[in-house]
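pls ignore typos typing on phone
adenosine-5'-monophosphate-propyl ester + seq
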Amino acid sequence: MVDKITSLAEYFQKYQESVADPEGFWGKIAESHYWHKKWDRVVDWRFSGPGAPDVKWFVNGKLNITENIFERNMFMRKDQVALIWEPNDPCDPVVHITYGELFDRVKQFANALKNIGVEKGDRVAIYLPMVPELAVAMLACARIGAIHSIVFAGFSATALSDRIIDASAKVVITSDGAYRGAKSIDLKSIVDEAVEKCPSIQKTVVLKHTGDEIKFDAKRDVWWSDLIEGVSTENTATEMDAEDILFILYTSGSTGKPKGVVHTTAGYMVYAEYTFKNVFQYNEGDMYWCTADIGWVTGHSYIVYGPLLTGATSIMFEGIPTFPDAGRFWQTIDKYKVTHFYTAPTAIRALLAQGDKWVTKQDLSSLKVLGTVGEPINEEAWRWYHDLVGKGKCPIVDTWWQTETGGIMISPLAGLTPTKPSLATLPLPGIQPILVDPEGKELKGNGVEGILCIKYPWPGMLRTTYGDHPRCFQTYFSAFPNLYLTGDGAKRDEEGYYRIIGRIDDVINVSGHRIGTAEVEDAINQHPKVVESAVVGYPHEIKGVGIYAYVICDDLTDDEMNTIEDEIRATVTKFIGAIAKPDKIQIVHGLPKTRSGKIMRRILRKIGEGDATNLGDTSTLLDPGVVDEIIAGAKVEVKR
Ligand code: PRX
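k done
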């Protein structure tokens, strides 16, 4: 089993070791995994030069990640609960799945996928609600070496088809429907619409979940239950190279369509397990609950892979924090005697706003560790989480990481690292952060603020962006030679602790969901009346960042003026999904552009923040008058 650090002094010692001898450090950790063949070299890497990045971990090692979840542990874990499924409606039956049962279901579904022609290296898109079959499907793909590409089931048909097309997925796995609080959503018709544009799709596997009526194409569609009927639960794992792709996960960037972040087998496995164990300080018998959706990286690494590799019991929650009421999280913690609870600052802020009574009503004395992820946590939310939810006795792990990093990078180790509100604190062993100025000059020492980069590879890092390696170099490795660019700004305080300030590019974290402003603009521009748009983030009390769209339209009649905002929101929902709907839409006659036609977003951001006192130099604008017009019509109060 992977070692767990047990004191702060040991953390500092391991950190030093990991920097002085990364190969020795990670090699020793990987020794505890189950390999068909061990590696020849721990790491081979290059962040620059022809074909860069070129990063390989555990070179020529052979393994299968599911053997490390199942076979490696089965003798001791067969009857231990691996997953607990808490349904959307708390009155519906809960599902407990042991490691032994999950193993059988994974092997059976792996065989079923093979039966419909899925082979090693094929891409399988998964568009499912938070049901146990989602974990079964992803692990079954991993078992046979198929590459899963999970798409969050809140994305629209267009967003789904873009992702299927980019990965040329052969099969898509979905359900008849999904519950979202009191509503049910017809997932199958979204998939039907998406696959019309996807010639690569040969089969759609449909799980019966809501029981709602759906259209069924007898040639293309197959029910999950029919697919596994009579299929054997005997299955030998496919041998994978350490660097074979495990999964693709699409994420937004500054420009263009979302890119498929590629994670490979061995490095991701080692990193997911190591970080889970050490950050959360998980012990045998603990009850772990991460509220994320498996459609995002947090769910991949810290609902499924990290916990299951560790042999933990992980709760999968289908519902939302406010259904049937705002006490749902706290009731669920009480119900299962949760010891480790991991959620997003947005959820904390939303529940804080509902008042303390929902929390104090429940017995939360089982809690030992609290975690946050996805966006900076403000001090008020941190204190409420710490003092009221954790009764002042649970350390908070504010975990900074990204889809691209595969696992947690900067975070306290629960109970070992002294915490400070809103600070992600210290890098994990093996992680070498560096702050640079815009010219790429290193900002040494403490008490500095700059652009956060990482200067040495780690096993869980992305290897490429699917189908477009130059884009990977361009996005992450071209700004500063030999550094991985995170896209975040950060401060290193006097003690060497990191505070993540937020994105420095045109990406925004809305309710902890990562959205590219360019993507939202592209979607808005699909509306026939829209001429041009510019989207920025603005401070939002609950969501952290809200979406503010400045939109130029063709001449609008009074009637059209009344409906345009709703129509724009509907357009964004259609092209991306409801998560990207603008909170504020301001119809404008012009945008602040330089003479070369570049939109000065800095000005729009400032106005969105409600502060026009210091707009900087606007003399280079083509038409400085538009700024006054925008301020006058702003959807927030603006200080001049
Ligand atoms: O801006 C940072 C923010 O979320 C971004 C990564 O988003 P995504 O790839 O969707 O992954 C989210 C879950 C790992 C980062 O570039 N972010 C993530 N965690 C934190 C954070 N910002 C501040 N504090 C955090 N703990």
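Residues 251, 297-298, 373-376, 398-403, 424, 486-488, 500, 502-503, 509, 514 surround adenosine-5'-monophosphate-propyl ester (CB under 6 Å). The chain has a mean pLDDT of 97. more later
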